[in-house]
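Field reference: "sequence" (input) and "structure" (output). Example, histidine kinase:
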Amino acid sequence: MRAPRGAGASLRTRLVTALTLLVLVVAALAAVGSTLRARQEAAETQDELLTRISELAAVPDPSASADVASTGAGAGIVVEEISAGSGHDLPSSLPDCLSTTTTDDGPQRVAVRTLPDSRRLAAAQPIAVRDDAVRETVTSTLVPIVVAVPLLVLGSVLVVSWALRPVESLRRELASRGGDQLEPLPRDGVPDELTGFLDAVDTHHARAAGVLEGRRRFAAEAAHELRTPIAAVSFQAEHLLAARDEEERERRGRTLEGGLARLRTLADQLLVLGDESAPEDHGQSVEDVVRALAGDLLGTPEGARADLRFDLEAADGALVPATAATTVLRNLVGNALRHAAGAGPIEVRAMAVGEAVRLEVLDRGPGIQDPEQVLAPFHREAGQEVPGHGLGLAITVRTLERQGGTLALLPRPGGGTIARATLPRA
């Protein structure tokens, strides 16, 4: 499979490249340092040899003369007298020390010594001969470094490949798994540096498994909930076609319209509940949100008959995500209207609490037996005769979670329920 556009080089390539560059830099520094050191040592050795030969030449001993001849010949060194009138190529004005001069034969390195009888002897060595000696020394120093560089690079490749074997094993393990195989990854032979990464992957897999399981359950429950209204609408359509007169046709048509409206409401709720995206929302004052919602509710038969009371003084003009707050209040107030409209006034309160806004809907209805379970999709408490699909509170929870809010269903002193939603300010 091709790497996605913009993906970086593999870890293996990065490590091998980095180690290779490190080897080359170290080898280059070693080569430069060794070359300079070898040149210096070779020059010092040649100067010491030149000085030693000049000292031996000054000794009036036949054996010393033999040593001078044999040693000097091997190093290209020539000993000659440079006193005035002796006939030679070297200048007679050279000082008694090591110096460099130029003759007809080219540059020469010369060591001069004055004898007790005032004669002056010079041991001369061509610079070309000295350069050959330095070149041999440098070559013998650099050859091991040049040979070692490719061996070190090859060793780096082998070491990196060996070190990344656990990563390659994990890659093969992940590649061989199916889309629903989200169990923890194996830890056998995995280095400590990868443990934290694998823990994060396993945590992500656990979350993904939870999401997949939730989606499977939601799909199964949605299919189950849709089966009955679809069957009812189909049955009503058949009855409409079988109507014998206009009056029966109109009555059965109204029944079919009501069934279609309930089916459309259920489908809309399922779409909202199944939408994983978090739509963009704009800030609006709590007062404006409640005012718009109150206008919608009072225009319905249930809202017109109910005793709705609003207390927004403590909101202090706080801004909330308008769409989310409208969805939350519409569902909570709608639940209260369906279950407790005839049991007493329904109160809607809003108050600013730090960086959040608290929205409360209070009723005097029968209360909630299981506040935790009633938040699950499609859950309806036993004994309820009010029509519905059990999705309103689930949609409210999903809406609040997307905004970082919470919902709590609390028993109200004296009977009834307090539905308390908390939203961060917009």
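The CA atoms of residues 350 and 359 lie 5 Å apart.
The chain has a mean pLDDT of 77.
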